[in-house]
Amino acid sequence: MATDLKIRNASIFSLLLFLSFLLGSSSAATDHDLRITNAERRIDLSSHIIKVFLTLKVENKGTSPTSEVILAFPPAQIDHLALLKAAVSGGKKKKKTYTSLDVNPKLPDGPNGTKYFSVTLLNPLKANEAVTLEILYILTKSLEPFPSEISQSESQLVYYRDSAIILSPYHIEQQATFIRTASTKVESYTNVEPTNRSGLELKYGPYVDQPPHSFSPIIVHFENNNPFVVIEDLVREVEISHWGSVQVREQYTLSHAGARLKGAFSRVDYQSKPSVSGVASFKQLLARLPPRVNSVYYRDEIGNISTSHLRLDLKKSELEIEPRYPLFGGWRATFVIGYRVPLEDFLYESTDGKQRYLNFTFGCPMAETVVNKLTIKVALPEGSKNPTVVAPFTLEQHLETTYSYLDIMGRTVVVLEKKNVVPEHNSPFQVYYDFNPAFMLVEPLILVSIFVLFFLACIAYLHGDISIQKHKTP
Ligand SMILES: *[C@@H]1O[C@H](CO)[C@@H](O)[C@H](O)[C@H]1NC(C)=O
Ligand SMILES: *[C@@H]1O[C@H](CO)[C@@H](O)[C@H](O)[C@H]1NC(C)=O
Ligand SMILES: *[C@@H]1O[C@H](CO)[C@@H](O)[C@H](O)[C@H]1NC(C)=O
Ligand SMILES: *[C@@H]1O[C@H](CO)[C@@H](O)[C@H](O)[C@H]1NC(C)=O
């Protein structure tokens, strides 16, 4: 076909056809030219946030170079995938370096609804060359409590479902999977020869020469009493005042996403037998706040909650809080945490000196939690314009306007939203904006004018008073 086109020659149309043919054929060819010579997968099931570390040694067995390596996920995992990162490792054992790579969804889907992601290599992988990729992905809500209801004194058991063989569009020569369970109490697991369990570790493999898209479903049933802390909704309001501080207010709707509590809750049992009663519940939460926080509060709709401890040091502040009652499966609690941090720790001038920016941490300050929906609202000082957001991942964003005391024009609020947020999303983001320093004078001017008006009113009143008295006295 290529020679055919060459004969017809010259016309732009045929050239385009030729190019699209080349592109089409090269991307189709790469899928089969790559091979995974060695794969190792480590699945960490010790908390309710599942971390999977995958090391792939990829070799180009074709003749043309390629920059794309495809990762595959079964459709059941895709909705639970909170994060996917890839890096290429280089250097020798002691001085290993990691360079992160771009990862993007890739269409169309593969057989049986397999979802693809494409990793872009820094340099094209030439024929007969190999590269080692380090992949990290995080799954949430992938542990199903079974039984789904337990009594106060029972432990929580969960199911984890996956494939013993790594799903891949490539042929995998050698592979093994290591699953780390939360406890040594493993009720059952699917056996796919060879399978071996010792202590916390369950090993699947080694398996050799698995063709593309091999899949072998497994179920692991084990005890996991780690707190299944899910924040259904978190709204963090960050208000910048050019008068010295950043005020933060965080509204939490918290739930225990583990096995539901069966029967009534007995506080007597809970307090008298703490080691056996309520093993699957939680009552303490740890929030990591920035250093130098002040004016910290913790309250719910009833009022201040006194059970909290704040530890301050130079690098971080830790706020330990206890909701009013311990949380069992299916239970909820709502509360608010607020604090102030010094402006100079978070507000900077851009390198060109034209803009200011807030450099704040995305994510949830609460340790080991999944946030179903996180909203961050950054209220810029009055008179700020043209906000732009720089973040290490995609966020939904829009603008709103809010009014607080002494605001005339209202403040611009940058609203950022993200679903399925895990602790690995706690990384800095920036909001850049234009600011006219003259606006800093507006509020004091309003205050001054109010004082002047008040003063004048007093004088007028006193004068009035005096003049009335004058009228009366003669
Ligand atoms: C698709 O799924 C079916 C049933 O689970 C299985 O038999 C078949 O081999 C799968 N096809 C591919 C290409 O994986
Ligand atoms: C299973 O693992 C243990 C400990 O690592 C080892 O001693 C044993 O030989 C293994 N069994 C098989 C069948 O591989
Ligand atoms: C709650 O705590 C804050 C700060 O600790 C305090 O200013 C406020 O008066 C308290 N409110 C009540 C109702 O106790
Ligand atoms: C934002 O703050 C972090 C530390 O919290 C720092 O590492 C990073 O360089 C800062 N980014 C910018 C653009 O200032």
TrEMBL record:
Keywords: Endoplasmic reticulum, Membrane, Signal, Transmembrane, Transmembrane helix. The chain crosses the membrane at residues 438-462. It is found in: Endoplasmic reticulum membrane. Residues 1-28 form the signal peptide. It comes from the Eukaryota. It is a single-pass type I membrane protein. Pfam families: Ribophorin_I. GO terms for biological process: protein N-linked glycosylation via asparagine. Pathway: Protein modification; protein glycosylation. One of its GO terms (cellular component) is oligosaccharyltransferase complex. The keyword Transmembrane helix applies. Component of the oligosaccharyltransferase (OST) complex. Subunit of the oligosaccharyl transferase (OST) complex that catalyzes the initial transfer of a defined glycan (Glc(3)Man(9)GlcNAc(2) in eukaryotes) from the lipid carrier dolichol-pyrophosphate to an asparagine residue within an Asn-X-Ser/Thr consensus motif in nascent polypeptide chains, the first step in protein N-glycosylation. N-glycosylation occurs cotranslationally and the complex associates with the Sec61 complex at the channel-forming translocon complex that mediates protein translocation across the endoplasmic reticulum (ER). All subunits are required for a maximal enzyme activity. Belongs to the OST1 family. This is Dolichyl-diphosphooligosaccharide--protein glycosyltransferase subunit 1. It comes from Spinacia oleracea. The lineage of its organism: Eukaryota, Viridiplantae, Streptophyta, Embryophyta, Tracheophyta.
